[in-house]
Amino acid sequence: MNALVPLPVLLPLCVTGLKLAIGPRLQRFQRFITLAVLGAVLVLSVLLMVAADRHGPLSVHLGDFPPPVGITLVADRLAGLMLTVSSAVTLLVNLYSLGQGMADRDDQTPVGVFHPAYLILVAGVSCTFLSGDLVNLYVGFEIMLVASFVLLTIGGTATRIRAGSTYVIISLFSSVLFLVAIAMTYSVAGTVNFAQLAGRLQEVPVGVRTLLEAMLLTVFAIKAAVFPLAAWLPDSYPTAPAPVTAVFAGLLTKVGVYSMLRTQTLLFPGHRLGDLLMLAALASMVIGILGAVAQTDLKRVLSFTLISHIGYMVFGIALAGRGSIAGAIVYVAHHITVQTTLFLVAGLIERRDGTTELTRLGGLARTAPLLAVLFFVPAMNLAGIPPFSGFIGKLGLMRAGVDNGGGWAWALVAGSAATSLLTLYVMAKVWNLAFWRDAPPGSEGEGRVLESAEDEPGDDGDGGDGGDDKDSAATGSGSGLPEPAGAVVSAGFLGQSITTTKRLPWPMVVATGAAVALGLLYTVLGGPLTTFTEAAAIELLARTPYIEAVLGR
Known about the structure:
- The protein has 553 residues and is an all-alpha fold.
- Helices cover 72% and strands 3% of the residues.
- Helix 6 (158-189) runs antiparallel to helix 8.
- The longest helix has 32 residues, at 158-189.
- The chain starts with 6 loop residues before the first helix and ends with a helix.
- Keywords: Cell membrane, Membrane, Transmembrane, Transmembrane helix.
């Protein structure tokens, strides 16, 4: 079974090479092999999760080189669960992207550019979850960074290039800081292998150990968009195509949270920066949700709720108890799925009505009841309404805070309750504006052509004839409807003009519905899920099973 551990990383990379060799040819075959490899990764992830639960952590030393020389990959309960959830989500998002590419009549871009970059991203995420040392954790981050920049800037429009550049600059800064932290760790411990560091860092002077902990936490907090290091996220994610935004919101920030979980429990037990983490968690929850309250665009609302709910996960890590770690793991799995689903729904709304600006939406509960259901269920899940999985995770975290009994813990319990109520308010606001109220005058109409991301509102072209052509396009099939204010920058893969339609592409609807069902599955399997995460928390805090699996003692 140990031989299966590298495959979630190797399979997407191998298929990426094959797809790049084929190029834009054999498009149906390429779609098939993309779905097939993502399905295979999901099956492998489930097998690794089950094996880790039954037999303990699985490890493999590539090339049979022992640590600290060789590359070590480890699959324990935490890694297995994260791999399974992320594999399921990436498979569904890929199906959604196929529907969007076909609807845009843009067959070459998804196959020739999006899918290879997407598979590289999947390999980077898997590498991060399985890494057994700091260097390969860094490599996983860099693989994701390269793929992320391609996906964020796909189409080369000015808005996407601007947002992608901000993302890359912030990511490069965190990468440099990560390299410095790795070098310092190696200089004081003589290794970067997690299992070896678990013992050697305890012999390092307290001041040096605290400095290393602070540097690594800063790196991972940037990746996870923890306040005050989250300013880059609301402007970067909403500009990308809907599938890209969805998978970024669901997965990339959780990679940072996972890294915090792994290092804080394995390398820095009884960490000295717990109070600082609690402050960051509280600030992320409160400031993030207040930012969401102030927004009127659905994608920006969801971006700020993403920042806010990262605070719940940091809350669990900061308390560092069995109950809090288990609650954080449940919440990570829940949030990956629910946040991805909500961004997929936002993409459907944009496809149907040409905008995600809430002031220009309305009446969707009457005109698109299926879309209303697809939004309502994950929205209530995100708000933590019983009996959804969001409630299970929040309840576990708040119980852990009460059991802790400290001043910061009680502040976080209060902040968690307030954030949940404000999240419910935000979701109710979106529901009332986009779904429940009557549609604003002039907002309905099928066949409206949305201008490309490069076009500015009110731009009538360079000449008289060009202006007439644009006016004709903007009204779309003679509907006489004005174009929504603001250029649509993420409806098409390339930011190209698209035509709105009330009949949404079935692969996009099916993928979104499956994501909603996956979120509900966590509720149905709430008992086994909490049992599994408690076992994972015990394993993380014990540290011994992980160390013995890697070092063989």
